[in-house]
Design a protein that fits this description.
Elements lengths: L1 E12 L2 E12 L3 E5 L6 H8 L7 E6 L2 E2 L8 E4 L11 H11 L4 H14 L15 H13 L5 E5 L7 H16 L3 E5 L3 H7 L2 E6 L2 E7 H7 L4 E7 L2 H8 L4 E5 L7 E6 L6 H11 L1 E7 L4 H9 L4
Parallel strand pairs: 3-8, 3-9, 6-7, 7-8
Antiparallel strand pairs: 1-2, 1-4, 4-5, 9-10, 11-13, 11-14, 12-13
Helix pairs in contact: 2-3, 2-4, 8-9
């Protein structure tokens, strides 16, 4: 079941097309990556979903019906441009934002105390925002975003400003929120984060949706039929055995008693023949496909090479 559907959305600004007939569907209970180079249209789409701006054509459906002003409370949004008031105290400001989301003061304080303890920031309650580092302020804004337990969470570059330890803490919390039933959209340039936590992605480039699907399926679909052979024996024997059946890309130094060789097999039906030829020439340890990373796919897609 899809919690959010974007149907043929187009948005133009003074002759510039920010989004051009973009459609996508976000499954309920998933972590969905919204990817693309700078200026591709990701932030415009996020603003349309949040009803900050409206599309010129097309529509956005939340839970099967067109999104309405009252639905904004069902969404938690962490923008890339952080919006905390520097002169306010941390606790006072967090309560203020929680009240805007419909929580009573008592509920807001109780929930905030739990989150502050979880993030190890219980001692910051009476500090002013301007006293905090960028990463500390980011923790506060993340808490404010999720505090009212929205069913749809949208994070725009959520890991910027975090060291690796706190970035990992945030990833764990995002996955925990998904496991509790929330749907998460996040926009990022960090492809390793996409592989770690995203179930699905959409790649927007030059205002268009050029690639959508499950991360594992996309990586496998756009593999280049490159394989790594680990073996024991003479490299020359292996090269002679597979010559004419595949392209030999590169060899590698010995790892323990085994060597490796990378091969490109053009057609799937030829893989078994290559394995059989190699197995007769040397002692095979393994024969594995090298699946491209999301970073590789991102670059190839943006450059029009997919």
């Amino acid at each position: 079941m899809d919690i959010l559907t974007v149907e043929h959305v187009t948005k133009r600004y003074a002759g510039h097309t920010a989004l051009d007939d973009v459609s996508l569907s976000i499954p309920k209970g998933s972590v969905y990556g919204l990817l693309g180079p700078n200026g591709a249209g990701k932030t415009t789409l996020i603003r349309i979903i949040n009803r900050i701006t409206a599309p010129d054509t097309g529509r956005v459906l939340l839970g099967g019906r067109e999104i309405a002003p009252e639905d904004v409370r069902r969404i938690g949004y962490l923008p890339e441009e952080r919006g905390l008031y520097k002169k306010m105290k941390v606790g006072e400001q967090a309560v203020f934002f929680a009240r805007l989301k419909g929580l009573s003061r008592r509920d807001a304080v109780a929930r905030l105390k739990k989150w502050f303890v979880k993030f190890g920031i219980e001692g910051w309650w009476d500090k002013k925002i301007e006293e905090l580092s960028k990463g500390m302020a980011q923790k506060v804004q993340f808490i404010v975003t999720v505090l009212h337990e929205p069913e749809l969470l949208i994070f725009d570059e959520p890991f910027s400003g975090f060291d690796p330890i706190n970035a990992n803490l945030l990833k764990e919390e995002i996955l925990a929120l998904r496991d509790k039933g929330a749907t998460v959209i996040f926009s990022t340039h960090n492809m390793s984060s996409v592989e770690e936590i995203c179930d699905h992605i959409t790649l927007i480039n030059k205002s268009k949706n050029i690639l959508s699907g499950r991360v594992d399926e996309i990586r496998r679909r756009h593999g280049a039929n490159i394989f790594e052979v680990a073996y024991r024996g003479e490299e020359a024997d292996l090269r002679r055995a597979v010559e004419g059946r595949c392209e030999i890309l590169e060899g590698a130094a010995e790892e323990s008693v085994y060597r490796t060789l990378k091969l490109h097999v053009e057609h799937d039906e030829e893989v078994r023949q290559v394995i059989d030829a190699a197995n007769r020439a040397v002692e095979l340890r393994s024969f594995r496909e090298i699946i491209p990373s999301m970073n590789d796919i991102f670059i190839r897609a943006v450059n029009g090479q997919l």
